[in-house]
């Protein structure tokens, strides 16, 4: 695993949180992108090597909608950059971590992603992401 690529934050309103995080970080989001398969609309802020990913649910079945219903707004996941996602998935599976997808899937911001179940990672939802070259 390499550096923390992004921290995902579940929000109720992307518009309101874009404004709040712009004031907090002193920069504007550099992109907004919907990911239909995850039922989310995202926006990204660059903060050094790590990004902040704000996530708003676009439907009631979205993991973000369920998370906010149970826990409220807040940190939803931590994403680590990896060089080779498939070999990292194989390594982590052999170490006993539970993969939530067996095949890398297309994420936001030009990444292939895989999630690890929080019950295998001390209740922290972990995302692996590999830049698509
Ligand atoms: C934009 C694309 C991508 C990117 O490029 O960056 C993204 O970031 S997409 C982000 C949204 N997508 C996902 O989160 C996909 C992976 N998540 C899942 O598959 C599910 O959310 C889940 C983690 C398997 C939970 O789903 P489910 O079992 O249906 O929900 P429950 O509400 O019943 O929760 C079960 C259990 O898990 C705990 N939980 C849920 N979410 C989290 C979380 N984010 N962090 C920590 N723990 C979480 C939840 O509290 C339940 O625990 P117990 O109550 O103790 O059973
Ligand atoms: Co993410």
From TrEMBL:
One of its GO terms (molecular function) is methylmalonyl-CoA epimerase activity. Keywords: Isomerase, Metal-binding. PANTHER family: METHYLMALONYL-COA EPIMERASE (PTHR43048), METHYLMALONYL-COA EPIMERASE, MITOCHONDRIAL (PTHR43048:SF3). The gene is mce. It comes from Flectobacillus roseus. Residues 3-131 form the VOC domain. It is an enzyme of class 5 (isomerase). InterPro entries: Glyas_Bleomycin-R_OHBP_Dase, MeMalonyl-CoA_epimerase, MMCE/EMCE_epimerase, VOC_core. This is Methylmalonyl-CoA epimerase. Its EC number is 5.1.99.1. Belongs to the methylmalonyl-CoA epimerase family.
